[in-house]
Specification:
Blueprint (H helix, E strand, L loop, with lengths): L4 E7 L10 E9 L2 E11 L4 E2 L4 E2 L4 H19 L1
Antiparallel strand pairs: 1-2, 2-3, 4-5
């Protein structure tokens, strides 16, 4: 059986959320079993590109957030 690993970044919106930044979570699936991990970072809902799973924009905060996500993704696939 292969060790298929899937990694997906998403925003977890609470039921009572009205506006403002939303927490970013990583969903990791290994052999059909999944777990979610909070990245302890937040972003605006309209900034997350679902296709590339990165934050859109040129501001310093956006670039730093994308620089945080990339090494996290590499660590998950290395493990």
């Amino acid at each position: 059986m292969s060790n298929l690993i899937q990694l997906y970044f998403h925003l977890k919106i609470s039921k009572n959320h009205t506006s403002g930044p939303i927490p970013i979570y990583a969903r990791i699936s290994v052999k059909g079993k999944r777990t979610e991990i909070s990245l302890n970072r937040k972003c605006e809902a309209e900034r997350l590109c679902r296709k590339s799973e990165r934050i859109n924009g040129n501001r310093e905060a956006v670039r730093n957030l994308n620089k945080f996500i990339e090494p996290f993704q590499i660590k998950v696939y290395d493990a």
